[in-house]
Amino acid sequence: MKVFISGNIAPAALQRLEENNISITQWNEDRQITTDELIEACKDQDGFISVGPNKINADFLNASKHLKVIALHSVGFDQVDVEVAKKLNIPVGNTPGVLSAATADTAFLLMLAVSRKAFFGYRKITDGNWVKYEPAQELGIELNGKTLGVFGLGKIGLEMAKKCKAAYNMKVVYHNRSRNEVAEKEIAAEYLSFDELLAQSDVLTVHTALTSETKEKFSMEVFRKMKSNAIFINTARGGIHNEQDLIKALEEKVIWGAGLDVTNPEPMDKNNPLLFMESVAVLPHIGSATEETREAMAGLIVENILAGLNGEKIPYPIY
Ligand code: 8YV
């Protein structure tokens, strides 16, 4: 059996695939593979491991009907045309659960970094601008006892909420399509309408999928409904906020700060104004990037691939 991988995955997983007599071809270029190249690369393969934002769209799927399985190196699957995959009966699997703690850590890191203007302070030193001690500069906002608003309280959102509660005794409010009874019971999370969530949150953290409903949900109109000292955190997908509106909202002090692990587009341009603002922190989509989590993700990928190649039901299907 043959599997194409469009990037790097944990070595232990490659070894397990090889032990199962799977022959591997990997994309090793320093740029993202294009859809045409992907179609060509998967032409004579049995399985495909998709690393990064490969477009698994109708063009790709229609040209790749022979694939027995597609295993995503992510929990998010906004890059997949699920309806077409379903119609063509191509099993597609993801990596749920194992990256919740690491991604919530990244959201927490961004919240804290923004609240104390940490990235700006670091740049002040590296830019040679730290010339004297100035107590009135780089003043942050404290988090103790503040209200955390979670937009999309699933596995990752719950991890983030628990950390904020434990560290800062933050009150947790949330907005979801459906109620999260576990969070209501365990951490007294309070369900609010979307507008109430915006009005009450001191920190608003996004942990929802990118869908037609959430695309550019955070626009100027929405930022205007938030507190002027609120911090906006997005570790989900860059497409969920409108970047120009976010820049404007920060410039005009409609909101106080923002922490982003995801941008639109990715990679972000090095001259993007967000990178030069005081109460902003941006990371290059490292939400789940730890040794332990990458290994765990690769473990689920191997399970999806082996099951799919054997014609069995895959254990972590997206549909
Ligand atoms: C992945 C992610 O590492 O799981 C997701 O949805 O965004 C990240 O954890 C990234 O998609 C690269 O594969």
From TrEMBL:
Gene Ontology cellular-component terms for this entry are:
cytosol
Could you tell me what this protein is called?
A: Glyoxylate/hydroxypyruvate reductase B
Q: Which family does it belong to?
A: Belongs to the D-isomer specific 2-hydroxyacid dehydrogenase family. GhrB subfamily.
Domain named D-isomer specific 2-hydroxyacid dehydrogenase catalytic is located at 3-316
Q: What is its EC number?
A: 1.1.1.79, 1.1.1.81
Which residues does the UniProt record annotate as the domain D-isomer specific 2-hydroxyacid dehydrogenase NAD-binding? 109-287
One Pfam family this chain carries?
2-Hacid_dh
The UniProt catalytic activity note for this protein reads: glycolate + NADP(+) = glyoxylate + NADPH + H(+); (R)-glycerate + NAD(+) = 3-hydroxypyruvate + NADH + H(+); (R)-glycerate + NADP(+) = 3-hydroxypyruvate + NADPH + H(+)
Enumerate the InterPro entries for this protein. D-isomer_2-hydroxyacid_DH, D-isomer_2_OHA_DH_cat_dom, D-isomer_DH_CS1, D-isomer_DH_NAD-bd, NAD(P)-bd_dom_sf
EC primary class: oxidoreductase
Among the GO molecular function terms of this UniProt record, one is:
NAD binding
Q: Does the keyword field hold Transit peptide?
A: no
**Per UniProt, which keywords does this protein have?**
Oxidoreductase
